[in-house]
Amino acid sequence: MRTKVFFFSLLMGLVMVGNVQSAYAEDFEIPENQTGPIILTQEGMIDVSDDRGVVVIPLEAYYQGETIFLDFTYNVGNVEVSVRNTTTGNCWSGTVNSADGMGEISIAGGGVGSYTLTLVTAYGDKYHGTFTID
User: Fold this and answer.
1) Residue 39 to residues 6, 20, 61, 130, 134: CA-CA distances in angstroms?
2) All residues at 6 or more sequence positions from 50 whose CB lies less than 8 Å from its CB, including other chains
3) What is the number of domains present in the chain?
4) Cβ count near 99 (within 10 Å)
5) What is the dihedral of CA 84, 64, 31, 102, to 10 degrees?
6) Angle of CA points 57, 95, 66, to nearest 5°
7) Is there a contact between 60 and 52 (Cβ–Cβ < 8 Å)?
8) Over the stretch 68-96, which tens digit does the pLDDT of each residue have?
9) Adjacent-strand bridge partners of 41
10) pTM for the whole structure
11) CATH number for 126
């Protein structure tokens, strides 16, 4: 009988773990007509690693029109965001809280050009990405 209870408990535990999803992923919806991901690279050390010890970038960035959308995989505290249109020199900046699981920053009036996105986490990790609006 103990063996049956143990295996039943084990099975239920596995089913429950298999159904757990990140609250961050559920809360953030990427716009259907988003223009594309912004490929981010890191500068220096990253504080977050997955279960296998593989270092991961704790966020993804997308842009649509004049808005940058940030999707956080992990809570890395407040994130300083700056966007620069390298064609015109215009700059935008703001702070988003990664605990919300998502964030966005407007680049209203930015127009056509090449852009650089820079993000700095509360831990001091720095990420860069570039994108172009035609």
Assistant:
1) 46, 27, 7, 7, 17
2) 56
3) 1
4) 12
5) 10
6) 85
7) no
8) 999 998 899 999 999 999 999 999 999 99
9) 128
10) 0.67
11) 2.60.40.3080
